[in-house]
Amino acid sequence: MKASSKEHLKELIQRYPDLAACEADLEQAAETMIDCYRQGGKVMVCGNGGSAADSLHIVGELMKGFILPRKLKPELQEKLRSTCPEMAEYCIANLQGALPAISLVNEVGLTTAYANDQAPDLGFAQQVLGQGKEGDVLFAISTSGNSANVLYAAGVAKALGIKVIGLAGQTGGKMVPWCDVCIKVPSKVTFKIQEYHLPVYHALCLCLEEEFFGQE
Question: Lower Cβ count inside 10 Å, N or C end of the chain?
Answer without folding.
Answer: C
